[in-house]
Amino acid sequence: MELGKYNVLVNSIAPGLIDTPLTQKLEKDVQQKLIDAQPTKTMGQPDDIAKVASFLANEGTRFITGQVIYVDGGKSVGANFV
Q1: What CA–CA distance (Å, rounded) separates 68 from 33?
Q2: Number of domains present in the structure of the chain
Q3: 50 part of a folded domain
Q4: Would you say residue 70 lies in a domain?
Q5: I need a labelling partner for 79 at 20 to 30 A (CA). Which of 13, 14, 41, 65 fits?
Q6: Which helix or strand (DSSP H or E) is residue 15 part of?
Q7: What CA–CA distances, in Å, run from 54 to 17, 36, 62, 74?
Q8: Measured distance CA(75)–CA(52) in Å, rounded
Q9: Could you tell me if residue 81 is inside a domain?
Q10: What angle do CA 62, 65, 67 make, to 5 degrees?
């Protein structure tokens, strides 16, 4: 709200379970439990996050601001159903 008058866009990316060196260090059974909890039954890739960041950096998104974009394989959709 405060930065809009300066044409500053503020958005965020909320990643879910992403296949990174950190998640690769988890024990296999822990990894599998996390994957099983995903609606897509997979881990995301770093490129999935990068593509959303690239999209938000595009000039064509000049009217998108104040948004949180979940890149989590659908996990956040069911968060309220637990």
Answers
A1: 26
A2: 1
A3: yes
A4: yes
A5: 65
A6: strand 12-15
A7: 20, 29, 13, 20
A8: 17
A9: no
A10: 135
Q: Residue 68 belongs to what domain range?
A: 4-74
Checking DSSP bridges between strand 68-71 and strand 12-15, what pairing results, if any?
parallel
Q: Are 76 and 20 within 8 A, CB to CB? A: no
In order of 37, 56, 68, 72, the CA distances from 80 in angstroms are 14, 27, 17, 15
Angstrom distance (rounded) from CA 52 to CA 71: 8
The whole-angstrom separation of Cα 28 and Cα 26 is: 6
Two tokens, residue 67: 């948004």
pLDDT in tens, the chain (82 residues): 889 899 999 999 999 999 999 999 999 999 999 999 999 999 999 999 999 999 999 999 999 999 999 999 999 986 655 5
| Residue 58 tokens, joined | 């595009």
Neighbours of 9 (CB within 10 A): 15
